[in-house]
Amino acid sequence: MKTLESITVLDLTQAYSGPLCTTLLADYGANVIKIEPAGVGDMTRYWSPIINGYSAYNELTSRNKKSVSLNLKAPEGKKIFLDLVKKADVIVENFKPGTAAKLEVDYESARKVKPDIIYCSISGFGQTGPEAKSPAYAIIAEAMSGHMDLTGFPETAPCKTGLSIGDSMAAVYGAFSIMMSLFQRSLTGEGQYIDVSMLDCLFFATESAVINTSVLPPERVITRSGNREIAFAPYDCYKASDGYYVLGGGTERHWISYCEVTGREDLLTDDRFKDNDSRKKNELELTDIISEFSSKHTRQEMVDMLSKVGIPCAPVLNIREAVVSPQIQARNMLAKMENPKTIGAYHIPNVPVKFSVSESSIDSPAPLLGEHNEEILSELGYSPEDIKELLEKGVL
Amino acid sequence: MKTLESITVLDLTQAYSGPLCTTLLADYGANVIKIEPAGVGDMTRYWSPIINGYSAYNELTSRNKKSVSLNLKAPEGKKIFLDLVKKADVIVENFKPGTAAKLEVDYESARKVKPDIIYCSISGFGQTGPEAKSPAYAIIAEAMSGHMDLTGFPETAPCKTGLSIGDSMAAVYGAFSIMMSLFQRSLTGEGQYIDVSMLDCLFFATESAVINTSVLPPERVITRSGNREIAFAPYDCYKASDGYYVLGGGTERHWISYCEVTGREDLLTDDRFKDNDSRKKNELELTDIISEFSSKHTRQEMVDMLSKVGIPCAPVLNIREAVVSPQIQARNMLAKMENPKTIGAYHIPNVPVKFSVSESSIDSPAPLLGEHNEEILSELGYSPEDIKELLEKGVL
């Protein structure tokens, strides 16, 4: 059984954060109706890469959903929206704060026709506060959260994460919050409003950095340290002849094993590296020694050599290598898809969590814009003629 | 009402991923009983910074929980554990795969005494596959997921995120999955087993990188690009006199405004920068020009100047600055705490999602090891004498 097969979600979101949130619900069986601006569609329909005139990006976040094109500014469009709300359990939107109210598709408008609706807003900075209406590029939320200053090397500029961690985090916190609300509704019959922001989620994810600001002296800088570990060495990303690998030696035993397996027993009695404290103090020299050795070996040779003696390590895989790696394959983390109407064959990451009972699957590729207009509107009682007229008027 | 006040969670986790997962449940009212190794406790009790002999780190992830110290290897300890399972709804563990079964505290053991138990395992690489038992340092999961190769500057080594995004992601995916299971149990009465891994969650979070491997030609490298945007320029992190700021000009209007407000209308007719394509091609020179101008101004001066004309931008705040920033303050994202028994006053990030109905709060600071032994064991029918004896035997 798919856990959410009794749940209908109206999806007013675009771009990445909101669509990823509703994707998590759709993959577990929710009936997600994606409402897209009539004639235009979700902005990701124009995002690269474009194959055969269609966006591959859009396949990622629209799978398992139905598409209805709707002009929410037209009175007929608003009526259709409210008719859909009456049959829905959950609404998700990621407009700029204020826009949903202006369009009259906000929580207040929705609960008038469906008092127990669960309504989740996802935004860059939240619905309140001085930055609520600032443009919510992910890099801006990362910059303001403290996260970006904490990522990168001390000798270079701060660095955002390679992929939009603000969107990703807000999406899953949104899905978690919606499930909390569905559970609460099952107890009390009540719906509610949820306000999720990228900034809040990123700030929450700064691990011990915030508590450290309050217990460490003000002069103690809390900032990025590349791939190093504050507490021990060696623990870093090192060069091999064909790329990089990581090695995390957290114990004295790891260090001894490293010296033995690389034939450098001399380092064990070298004053610069004799204990963890010394190694931390002379970490730059230590890094040079480790990289010099490994630059004559491939990543795989290094990983084979080090794992054999129990040292935690791994090659740094690029995404093409990750896709075909044994663990990703063994975990069935790749969904092979085919969309004959758009980009043809492709693969995307599979649903990330394994349940013993709750089923999940990626069944249908992304719909065309308005592909389910007829199906959904006829369920609301519209005749084929009505639908044709709405299309001609640009409502659909 | 706190949504989860009827839910009891047995928390067998240590370090960060598992404790963060159960923290999300505790903050919304779940009765979380943290079972810690007798005499030793969660490993975070020894993590820096140490204040007055107590770990600040441990305050972060043990708040709102009760602590029972328990030797799971002793027969009496196992009995207490199973008695607790009978009264629990959810169990969360993040042992190395295989350890829970060896200790007989795994799903199979638990469901024998509580058939509808929801049991969530969190691990580095999942319960299956060739890497299941590899050491699960977060940097290793990042390296294997493709995430690390995608983060950092092209001219430097790959870079992990500053804070442990693998743990953070696995934690919230765990909480989402537990809520899915509680919802499913409310429909069918059934419990289930959940297998969450850092690697799966990170791989899932690589946005369009995976689909791009399948639709772009093999020679097309998909790797890190620092803070730049593939599609447009300027969009980067730039130097100011007192630090860094980000600027994301996605439209032609933004570029024109930038040139006007900085008095560089000459750039508008400069062939190197006349349209987005040219700016992307000459991005290094563009960056130099922008940084040279802003290096004579503070971050705040730059942000004031650029926001006034509608250019998306923000200072890169370090964590101390983020904590006191107006938006974080306005969102009430800081919980001021006091633990008179351990580290005294401190602050931590507040619960990240705002609900209109579901209440959340951080009420109690981290418990001492075994602080709730008496309370919890007397609920199970143990007398003060029994408890004293168990303590003396090292079971508690």
Compact description:
The structure is a homodimer of 396-residue chains. The first copy, chain A, has 396 residues and is an alpha/beta fold. The first copy, chain A, is built from 17 helices and 14 strands.
Oligomer: homodimer
Strand proportion of chain A, as a percent range, falls in 15-25%
Shape of chain A: elongated
* Number of helices, counting only DSSP H or I runs of 4 residues or more of chain A: 17
CATH architecture heading of the largest domain in chain A:
3-Layer(aba) Sandwich
Low-confidence regions of chain A: none
User: Order of strands across the widest beta sheet of chain A?
Assistant: 5-2-1-6-7-8
Describe this structure in words.
The structure is a homodimer of 396-residue chains. The first copy, chain A, contains 17 helices and 14 strands. Chain A is an alpha/beta fold and 396 residues long. Chain A folds into two domains: 8-204 and 332-392, Crotonobetainyl-coa:carnitine coa-transferase, domain 1 (Rossmann fold, 3-Layer(aba) Sandwich); 235-317, formyl-coa transferase, domain 3 (2-Layer Sandwich). A six-stranded parallel sheet of chain A has the order 5-2-1-6-7-8, with helices on both faces. In chain A, strands 9-10-11 form a three-stranded antiparallel sheet, with helices on one face. A two-stranded antiparallel sheet of chain A has the order 3-4. In chain A, strand 9 and strand 10 form a beta hairpin. In chain A, helix 6 (138-145) crosses helix 8 (198-204) and helix 7 packs across helix 8 (198-204). Chain A is elongated and about 85 Å long. The mean pLDDT of chain A is 96. At the A-B interface, helix 2, helix 6, helix 7, strand 8 and helix 8 of A face helix 2, helix 6, helix 7, strand 8 and helix 8 of B.
